[in-house]
C-alpha cells in the first residue's frame, strides 16, 4: 500500500456512458451522479451516428453535456468486423471514421477510440498493406485537425503495436491504453506497455481482468479468415469466464499501483475512463471504480 500513497494522480476520471445501459441522456446524468468529470460515448449507430446528428443537434448535445458540468473524453468509433484488414471495405470505413472524428471535434473532444484489426507480423503481406494504407490516411486526416484516432490495446503486444505505429507519418493514429485487454488476451505486461507506447498514449480505459488460459487473439478480435469482431460475442466470452474474465477494479491481475505510477512517470495527463462491459450492476461497479481511482488522488 505504500506505493499507492506515494503517487498522486491528477488525471480526470471518465465513464463510458454506454456501460450504464440506459441510453445516452440518462447515462450522461448517471455519469455525473457517480462522480465522473468526463464521458466517452459510442458514436457508430443509432442516435449518436454522425449521419443522424444535424449541426443544431450537435450544438444542443454539447450544450447539454456542458450544463451537467461534464466534458467528452473521447468518442468510440469502433466499426467492428475485420477492422481495416479488408481492403475492399476500407474506403467506406475510413470515410465513416472521418465523420466520427468530425463529430468528436464538434462536441469538444479531439479523440476517437477504435480497433483496427490485429496487426500482422508479416509487413510485406496484403493485409498489413491494407491496414497501413487506411491508418496512414486516417492519421493524416486527424493530424490536419489536431485530432487522434486512438487504437485500443489488446489484440497485439505493445512492442508489436509500436512497430506498426512507427510506420505512419504522424501521430494522428495513436493509442487508447486498456491494461485489462493486455492482461486478458496477450498476457502482455501493462506497466512495460505504458513505457513502450509512451509517445502514443492519448486516452486510457480503466478496467481489470484475469486470464485463465492462452488464446489466439484472432479468436477474440477477428481477422480475415476468422469470424469478424463482435462486441456482443466478446462480452459473452468475458462473462462466461472460460478463457478470461473482466472483474471489478482491484480484483484482477492489473497491478494498478505500478500501472498508475507508470502513467505518472511518462507524464500522461489525459483521461482515465472507466469501462465496464459486463456485470448485472454496472452502476454499482462504476461507483466503486470511481472510488478506487480516487484513492490514488
TrEMBL record:
Record's keyword annotation contains Kinase: no
Naturally occurring in which organism (per UniProt): Paenibacillus hodogayensis
Molecular function per GO: isomerase activity
Name of the protein in question: Sugar phosphate isomerase/epimerase family protein
Superkingdom, natural source: Bacteria
Keywords linked to the UniProt accession: Isomerase
A Pfam family reported for this protein in Swiss-Prot or TrEMBL: AP_endonuc_2
Isomerase recorded as keyword: yes
Domain Xylose isomerase-like TIM barrel: 28-295
Amino acid at each position: 500500500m505504500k506505493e499507492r500513497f506515494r503517487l498522486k494522480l491528477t488525471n480526470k476520471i471518465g465513464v463510458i456512458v454506454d456501460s450504464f445501459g440506459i441510453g445516452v441522456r440518462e447515462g450522461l446524468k448517471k455519469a455525473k451522479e457517480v462522480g465522473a468529470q468526463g464521458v466517452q460515448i459510442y458514436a457508430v449507430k443509432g442516435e449518436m451516428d454522425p449521419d443522424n446528428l444535424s449541426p443544431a443537434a450537435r450544438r444542443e448535445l454539447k450544450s447539454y453535456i456542458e450544463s451537467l458540468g461534464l466534458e467528452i473524453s473521447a468518442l468510440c468509433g469502433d466499426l467492428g468486423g475485420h477492422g481495416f484488414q479488408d481492403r475492399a471495405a476500407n474506403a467506406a470505413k475510413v470515410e465513416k471514421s472521418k465523420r466520427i472524428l468530425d463529430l468528436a471535434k464538434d462536441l469538444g473532444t479531439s479523440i476517437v477510440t477504435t480497433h483496427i484489426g490485429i496487426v500482422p507480423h508479416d509487413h510485406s503481406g496484403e493485409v498489413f498493406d491494407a491496414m497501413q494504407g487506411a491508418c496512414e490516411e486516417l492519421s493524416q486526416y486527424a493530424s490536419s485537425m489536431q485530432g487522434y484516432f486512438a487504437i485500443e490495446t489488446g489484440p497485439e503486444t505493445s512492442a508489436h503495436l509500436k512497430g506498426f505505429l512507427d510506420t505512419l507519418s504522424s501521430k494522428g493514429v495513436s493509442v487508447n491504453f486498456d491494461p485489462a485487454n493486455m492482461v486478458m488476451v496477450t498476457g502482455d505486461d501493462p506497466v512495460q506497455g505504458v513505457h513502450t507506447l509512451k509517445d502514443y498514449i492519448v486516452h486510457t480505459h480503466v478496467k481489470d481482468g484475469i486470464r485463465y488460459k492462452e488464446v489466439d487473439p484472432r479468436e477474440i478480435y477477428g481477422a480475415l479468415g476468422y469470424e469478424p469482431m463482435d462486441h456482443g460475442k466478446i462480452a459473452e466470452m468475458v462473462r462466461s469466464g472460460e478463457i478470461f474474465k473482466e472483474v471489478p477494479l482491484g480484483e484482477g491481475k492489473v497491478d494498478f499501483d505500478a500501472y498508475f505510477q507508470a502513467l505518472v512517470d511518462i507524464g500522461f495527463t489525459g483521461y482515465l475512463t472507466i469501462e465496464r462491459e459486463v456485470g448485472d450492476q454496472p452502476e454499482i461497479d462504476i461507483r466503486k471504480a470511481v472510488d478506487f481511482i480516487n484513492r490514488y488522488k
